[in-house]
Amino acid sequence: MILQAAIGDAYGAGFEFQTLDFILKNNNLRQYHPHGHYKEIYKRYTDDTQMAIAIAELLLETDDWNEIKVADKFVAVFHRDKRRGYSDRVYNALDMSTNGQDFIKNINNASNGNGSAMRAYPIGYIKNIDQLLDCCEIQAKTSHDTAEGISCAKRIALAVHYYRYQLDTQCTLIEFINDTLKEHEIYEVVSPIDMHGYPTTRAVINMVSTASSMQDCLKYAIDCGGDTDTVAALCMAILSQKKNCSSELPNFLYEELENGTYGKDYLIELDRQLDLKFLGI
Prior knowledge:
The protein is an all-alpha fold. Helix content is about 60%, strand content about 0%. It has helices spanning about 1-15, 20-25, 45-60, 65-80, 90-95, 100-105, 115-120, 130-140, 145-165, 175-180, 195-210, 215-225, 230-240, 250-255, 265-280.
């Protein structure tokens, strides 16, 4: 799951902030492209995956969460492997912090951005729904302590949970999310996809609910423009758990993805450990 998300993130990063003309010309799933602002983001994942790694590691370490523990993990993961892609608000707060308590003091957490949702997908492995929702809220509050930030994190984790535990025989994905969160959301794609939580999650949930191919969904997510890396990463993470969805992707996406200390092999091992803890496989 994290591996597939990192692929979507790294591929999508090459189209973030690019024009629609550039996207339509180059989004052919044949090669990675450098990021429009940060040239070092080339065949590399961004903050989206790095923060999801932090969440995954915390899931493996403890079931007893609080905001300080989450923030501690965000700070530790950032400083061991600094990379661009974060908003200035979050990057600067992390950079100035030596621990989670510092981060909570340094960050303005009144954000409606999609950052709390982009990292929430590993929480979908939690089998108990109440615990899943609690963990989503705890991690969201560290940087996005708003109704939008909290709700949208829950939407993404619930989507992973829905497909991971094959609840599709009981209801549709959208029914499951709306019923669980007591919402009446209409999930639709509005292009270009805005970086706030609601438009991002509306688009992602719409895409994955109808997708039958990870490859087709990845191309469509990028074609929509906007926050391409986040949307692609979330779609790939969720669809990696969907049983009736083709998982085939072009080989270059796997073969050329970064493989340093926290690269491809590390992500594969994280996925293995999550499967072992939550699924016993």
